[in-house]
Amino acid sequence: MGEFGIEKESLRVTGEGMLAFTSHPSMARYHMEEQISRDFAESQLEFVSRVHTSVDSACQEICFLQSLVEEEIKNRKTGREYVWTYSNPPGFSGEKNIRIAEFKEDLEGKNTYRHYLSEKYGRVKMLFSGVHLNFSMPEEFFVLLRELTGEEIQTLKNEWYLNLADCLMDDSWLLVALTSASPVAKPEFLKGLGVPREEWNRYASFRNSKYGYWNLFIPCLSYRNFESYLFSIEEYVRQGVLSSAHELYYPLRLKPKGENTLENLKNYGVNHIELRMLDLNLMSCAGVAKEDLIFIHLLIAYRISQILETGKRESEGEREGEGRILLHQRAAELDFWEKEETYRKKALELLEHMKEFYQDYEESAKGYIPKDYDIKGLLAFQERKILNLKYRYSQQILEKYKNHYIHGVMEEIKER
Which residues pair with 41 in a beta bridge? Predict the structure, then answer.
């Protein structure tokens, strides 16, 4: 079945929908400093769930963590604040007034890194918020593989997660096209990103577009084997275009347990994969619809079954790396499904294959997917988004907030 963790970023705002300039609320009395922290900005909350064996419980914990912060910030001396649950930022009064997160004592090194990011990418781009889904395969799976192959468990994990990440990179565009939920933004934000005026109404997700959260170049990572994957990142660090593995802005990342460093990845191997392309969904407390998370779980399980059936494929990751990112960025456009008939057909064929696979799966009574998943309904839910404009989050948000962005979103937030 696997294990799940969710990381959700959100900004604190005033009652008028302006970026808060106040300090991060103290959460010491809850003893949850690691689960409720900050990202780039002082006003940018980061909620981190524990590891869960179900998508539902991970979502519930994120909602609970947010409720703690909402309770803490509703009676601030400077006025009530709210949690802005949308990927594009609220109003803000100039880049210089975006306050960089301020850490103290043992965490002061984070300040230096954030000032480095500010100089390199600008503070405006750092205001994007989103959801990261962390996934790990059951330990029993690797124990069984060890018995079959005689290889060390960590060696098997490194190989399997690398192969799975490579497969899921081929699906990155699909997940963007199905979950994009941020088509509306303030003009000053789009100007700060460098988006031309004629493209302000072009994207379903600015965060996943070419103007989004990317490095200054398109990384091409090697998926031939774990050593070559590490080497491809090390080369970018050696060349000085990345300061560390942490600066790699890529749709999927292989993560070690603990701090995300190349040294930890080398020494301890892969612990889980991180999917980073999910927009904040304004209509979901957890920041992403549970139906979408379950679909991702179904897609992962389907890809794992293909790897089991066909074995490790010969990756062309180095050659395809740039193409996969460019497709990912195109999938963030509002009219992607109408304009890209080839990929529309490809997505529908994939859903059909998944229906057939899970029909056989249910009949064989295997126990890798929770029995309470309405698989047919979940796949039909995604199909509707492909075929009909009105079911897409981006269209629903566009119709609701295009003419009164800040006011409309704040009304939604205050009604929760």
Answer: 100
Q: What is the pTM of this model?
A: 0.95
User: In sequence order, what DSSP letters do the residues of 36-64 get, joined into one string?
Assistant: EEE-SBTTEEEEE---BSSHHHHHHHHHH
Residue written as token pair 């124990």: 143
Q: What is the pLDDT of residues 378-390, one digit of tens each?
A: 999 999 999 999 9
Count the neighbouring beta carbons within 10 Å of the beta carbon of residue 79.
13
Q: Please give the Cα distance from 58 to 272 (Å, whole number).
A: 16
283 contact partners, CB below 8 Å, separation of at least 6: 289, 393, 396
CA–CA dist 25, 10 (Å, integer) = 14
Q: Is 214 helix (H, G, I), strand (E, B) or coil?
A: coil
Residue 56 bridge partners (DSSP): none
Please give the average per-residue pLDDT across 207-222, as a whole number: 96
User: Amino acid identity of 94?
Assistant: G
Note whether 91 and 190 are within 8 A (CB). Answer: no
What gap in Å lies between CA 70 and CA 90, rounded to an integer? 17
245-275 burial, b if ≥16 CB within 10 A, otherwise e? bebbebbbbbbbeeebebebbeeebbbbbbb
Residues linked to residue 84 through DSSP beta bridges, in sequence order: 11
Backbone phi, then psi, for 83, in 5-degree steps? -95, 120
What are the Cα distances from residue 291, in Å, to 58, 376, 409? 13, 12, 22
- Tell me the pairing of strands 36-38 and 44-48: antiparallel
Phi, psi of 81 (to 5 degrees): -120, 165
pLDDT in tens, 104-124: 887 888 999 999 999 999 999
Spatial contact of 45 and 36, defined as CB atoms under 8 Å apart: yes
Task: Show the tokens assigned to 173.
Answer: 């565009």
Q: Which residues pair with 187 in a beta bridge?
A: none
E strand or H helix at 83, and its extent? strand 81-84
DSSP 126: G
The CB-side HSE value for 358 (13 A sphere, CA atoms) comes to 25
Closest by alpha carbon to 279, among 177, 182, 405, 194? 182
Confidence of residue 363 (pLDDT cuts 50, 70, 90): low
76 vs 78: CA distance, rounded Å: 5
CB-side neighbour CA atoms (13 Å) of 289: 16
Nearest to 44 by CA among 128, 104, 122, 117: 128
Residue 97 one-letter amino acid: N
Contacts of 346 (CB under 8 A, 6+ apart): none
